[in-house]
Amino acid sequence: MRVVTGKTMSRYQKYILPAGIFGFLLLGSAVMCRVDPVALIAGIPRGIDLFGQMVPPAWKTFPELVGPALETVEIAFVGTALGASLSFVIGLVAAHNMNSNRILRNTVRTILSVERALPDLIVVLFFVAIVGLGPFPGVMALAASSIGMLGKLFADAIEEVDPKPVESMVAIGATKAQVIRYAVLPQVIPSLIGNTLYRFEVNIRMSIFLGVVGAGGIGYNLVTSLRLLEYQEAMAAILTILILVTLCEKLSERVRRIIVGQELLR
Amino acid sequence: MSGRRTNYRGDLRYKRWYKTYFFSGSLFILIFGWSVAHLKISPRLFWEGIPHFFNLVTEMLPPNWGVFSRGKILWSILETLSMAFAGTSLGAIGALFFGLLGAGNISPSKVIREATKRLLAAERSVPPLIYILLLVVVIGLGPFAGMIVIAMGTVGMLGKLFAEAIENIDPKPLESLESTGATRIQMVRYAVLPQVIPSLIANTLYRFDINLRVALFLGVVGGGGIGVNLQMAMSLFRYADALAITVVTLLIIWVAERISDYFRRRVIGQEILH
Fold first, then answer.
1. Which of A17, A132, A162, A258 has the most beta carbons within 10 angstroms of its beta carbon?
2. DSSP code of A237?
3. A219: which chain B residues are within 8 Å (Cβ-Cβ)?
4. Smallest CA–CA distance from B182 into chain A, residue
5. Is B44 an interface residue toward A (CB < 8 Å)?
6. What is the second-level CATH architecture of the domain B66-267?
7. Which tens digit of pLDDT belongs to each residue from B85-120?
């Protein structure tokens, strides 16, 4: 490798400018972030100390955490289910093989892409502002933020169905509902459920965060115990959250593996 | 159509249909109904929310562009962008390190490889919310804590993707370098990097898009940046301010995404560091 030394300079020359710009931006953003190695080093003993205060977790608070944990799962579940149902209807409207009205289709598609561009956080904050605190705004926020992604995925899945069953059903004079039920659904259901489950995993994490902004669930317990400096209780909440997230992911992965590649509702 | 024709009992297909869907369908409805009852959700709440919605709309309009006159808000947006940029860059560098350790064809030993994979998987399963809440206690509020959390999340996801990308390279250059007695660093530099760099950059840019949103979110829970201002405006019922901040933030995020999109498209299929 040493032989090419003479060429090395010209070899790297074209990377100098991009690397320089990147380095400059990185430096600038590090300054903006107030990167502070001193705080980081000072934080190490503090982190160890914090961990010492957190163990052993307050096992006795676990019974109190079951209710909020359940609430978190329920918010995610209902929010995802509502969002997915609405997304299916929207998907039908936005799919060109189901809806021949081009203007309506494009309007819906545009709304969906705007919704997708909105960070979920903003949707959540707005819903909390509209409906107030409690689990209901959480459910609505999750449903609304799921629609942007699921609506598009569903529409794409519906557009990609094999057109033959659809055409033959139309040819024998089936109603629109019959076409959807017998030609579209059997082909798209596995992918719809798979995508919905994926969104459920996202929503579980969102739902934990919802507790922090006051929409109910286990996130609230975690934040309050941290604010009250009850670190052992906080550790119990953290462990509960980790168990919750892992269980939901395992479950949704298993269901997904069962349904992928199957023809359902034939 | 078969569904209609098989509506008489005794048909095998109907029986199977009935069993699977009846069971899973009623399970779903049961869980759903129970959750709705437990969360005390009713359509009434929805109807009651509608006037609130119109109230909110009238209060938000017109957006109060005056919030930007102080300049501090724009500074906060820049802070959010910086958190995402610095966090993604540092995270990607860390991810390259862990990706090399976790890739079967270049990792120094099997034990290290397995340990790295486990570590990354554990790291991914912890929501960023928990990291930020704990980090705020340890190093205090502000964008620095947010940047670290973003870097950690980036390492978890990109580390896995990088390891997979490295495992999927063409093994021939690697083998020929090995047969000439190249060191591991030389192998990485001349056989691995030229093959994987475009995909690494594309994945990093994709993660940057995600991290812009994470940075916004982290502000609400103490990570600094525009998220703080947005949350403040909302909780003080200054909806016109909130709308102005939202619009400008979205615009800036959109521009940042377009830029990252441009670079992603340029980088794919190129040979870099050859």
1. A132
2. H
3. 129
4. A1
5. no
6. Orthogonal Bundle (1.10)
7. 999 999 999 999 999 999 888 888 889 999 999 999
CA atoms within 13 A on the CB side of B212: 23
Q: Confidence class of residue B274 from pLDDT cuts 50, 70 and 90? A: low
Shared domain for A65 and A47, answered yes or no, is no
A14 shares its domain with A112? no
Backbone angles phi, psi at B176, to 5 degrees: -70, -35
- pLDDT over 50 at A94, yes or no: yes
**Together in a domain, A108 and A221:** yes
B185 touches chain A (CB under 8 A): no
Q: What is the pLDDT of residue B10?
A: 54
Query: Within this chain, do residues A163 and A220 fall inside the same structural domain, yes or no?
Result: yes
A261 pLDDT band, cuts 50/70/90, is low
Dihedral (C-alpha) A169, A174, A179, A181: value to the nearest 10 degrees? -120
| pLDDT score of B152 | 92
Q: Which amino acid is at A193?
A: I
List the structure tokens of A170: 């139309």
Determine, yes or no, domain membership for A265. Answer: no
> B57 — contact with chain A (CB < 8 Å)?
no
> If you count residue pairs, one on A and one on B, with CB atoms under 8 Å apart, how many are there?
164
Cβ–Cβ under 8 Å, residues A199 and A146: yes
Mean pLDDT calculated for residue range B119-133 = 88
Give the mean model confidence (pLDDT) for residues A128-143: 81
Instruction: Please give, rounded to a whole number of angstroms, the shortest distance from the CA of B182 to a CA of chain A.
Output: 9
ipTM of the complex: 0.80
Inter-residue contact A78 to A146 (CB < 8 Å): no
Residue B251 token pair = 């615009």
Distance from CA of A94 to the nearest CA of B (A): 24
Res A85 pLDDT > 90: yes
- Contact check, Cβ <8 Å, B250/A118: yes
**Is residue B230 less than 8 Å (CB to CB) from chain A?**
yes
Q: Tell which A residues from 186 to 215 touch B, by Cβ distance under 8 Å.
A: 205, 208-209, 212-213
Q: Largest alpha-carbon pair distance within chain B?
A: 76
- Which tokens go with B188? 């990485």
| Residue A50 in contact with partner chain B when CB distance is under 8 A | yes
pLDDT number for residue B75: 85
Measured between alpha carbons, how far is A39 from B231 in angstroms, rounded to an integer? 26
Contact B39 A25 (CB under 8 A): no
- Cα-flanking dihedrals φ and ψ of residue A174, to 5°? -75, 150
